[in-house]
Amino acid sequence: EAQVTQNPRYLITVTGKKLTVTCSQNMNHEYMSWYRQDPGLGLRQIYYSMNVEVTDKGDVPEGYKVSRKEKRNFPLILESPSPNQTSLYFCASSSGGLYNEQFFGPGTRLTVL
Amino acid sequence: QQPVQSPQAVILREGEDAVINCSSSKALYSVHWYRQKHGEAPVFLMILLKGGEQKGHEKISASFNEKKQQSSLYLTASQLSYSGTYFCGTPKGGGTSYGKLTFGQGTILTVHP
Fold first, then answer.
1. What whole-number distance in Å separates Cα of residue A80 and Cα of residue A112?
2. Cα(B71)–Cα(B24) distance, integer angstroms
3. Which of A18, A91, A113, B35 could bridge across to A23 with cysteines, CB 3.0–4.6 Å?
4. Residue B35 near chain A (CB below 8 Å)
5. Do B99 and A106 touch (CB under 8 A)?
6. How far, CA to CA in Å, does B113 sit from each of A72, B20, B60, B80, B82?
7. CB distance A101–B49 less than 8 Å?
């Protein structure tokens, strides 16, 4: 089944404790993104990757890092999480091209205390 | 810059119609529409391209006015399953998106029996 998976789905952590949220897709997509969703603000792009080893900042990259060492994986790293990073996070992938439908993962709800 | 959606919320009874609008301050090459049901990930509905091409999964219609930099999503004869939050997305920089989308703040649609 074509899908995007994220782990963990729920995470409660404390300020400053490094964490990684994994994202994996099995559709051989070149493009992958991370979004955060906050009430009233919609989906805001954090980082974006066009292919292996190629990443670019989105609209809200501060406090986040990403890496794309393999085509299927695109982990999101919070080196020193803060309470304002409490949010719902979605990973998405797409094949690019003219239509570029994005497939979203199930989401990760992160709480930073 | 984030596209602006209107209205912010709509409440309908089954069978009624609704229109959701999406406006951008930039010239648009394409507009994407997604629906997110409560507690789930956003799911692709439709993409409209400059020049009139479109691709969608469901019996939902939409329009794209390039000159006005607007798109409208038409939900006719609404069903309970239409309930959710609808997002429009536009390519950053106004060109083809290749995964780099900026989403509106969302429109919450509630359909009652």
1. 10
2. 9
3. A91
4. no
5. no
6. 42, 20, 20, 7, 12
7. no
Cβ(B78)–Cβ(B10) under 8 Å?
no
B55 touches chain A (CB under 8 A): yes
Which chain B positions have a beta carbon within 8 Å of A103's beta carbon? 44
**B52 close contact with A: CB closer than 8 A:** no
Structure tokens at A42: 């919609």
Q: Return the SS3 of A93.
A: strand
| Best A9, A98, A109 residue to mutate vs chain B (most B CBs within 10 Å) | A98
Whether B104 has its CB under 8 Å from any CB of chain A: the answer is yes
pLDDT tens-digit profile of A45-102?
A: 999 999 999 999 999 999 999 999 999 999 999 999 999 999 999 999 998 777 778 9
Quickly list DSSP for A30-89.
SEEEEEEEETTTEEEEEEEEEETTEEEE-S--TT-EE--SSTTB--EEESS--GGG-EEE
Taking the C-alpha atoms of residue A69 and residue B96, their distance in angstroms, rounded to an integer, is 25
A10 and B CB contact within 8 Å: no
Q: What whole-number distance in Å separates Cα of residue A80 and Cα of residue A85?
A: 10
